Amino acid sequence: MPDRTPETNVIDYRAAEQLLAARDPRGAVKLLDPVITAHPENTAARLLRARAFFMAAQLRAAELEFQVVLEREPANAFAHFALARTLERALRPTEAQRHFRLAAALDANPEYLRAARFEDGAGSS
After folding, report:
1. So where are the chain's domains?
2. Euclidean distance between CA atoms 48 and 16, whole angstroms
3. pTM exceeds 0.70, yes or no
4. DSSP-based three-state secondary structure for 47
5. How high is the mean pLDDT in each 10-residue block of the chain (125 residues)?
6. DSSP states of 70-100 as a string?
7. Which SS3 state, helix, strand or coil, does residue 5 take?
C-alpha cells in the first residue's frame, strides 16, 4: 500500500461519510480503518467509525469505539446518546439509560430529552 498522505486521509474520511449516508457501513469502516491507524487520536474519524459499526450491527465494536470517544470528550452529548442506543440495542437498558440521561443533561436536544425519560422516573429505584 502506498504511503498515505494527509489528503488521502481526508478523501477517505469524506468518502466514508458518503458511504454511511448511502447505508454502506462496512464500506465506511474499510475506508476509516487506515485513517485511524494513521491518526488514532482523530476523534471525528473514531466517531464516524463507531456510527458505521452501529449501523452494521457490530454492537461490541461500536460500544468500544464510542467509549474511546467519550474518554477523550466526556461532554460529547451525541457520543453518550449513540452509546446509549448501542447499549439499548444490545439489551442492556440500565446502562443505556445512564448515557441517555448524560446526553440530555449535556444537550437539551428534544430527542435526547425524550430518550432520557426524566419525567417517568425510569431507571430510578
Report:
1. 1-58, 74-125
2. 8
3. yes
4. helix
5. 80 98 98 96 97 98 98 98 98 97 97 86 46
6. HHH-TT-HHHHHHHHHHHHHTT-HHHHHHHH
7. coil
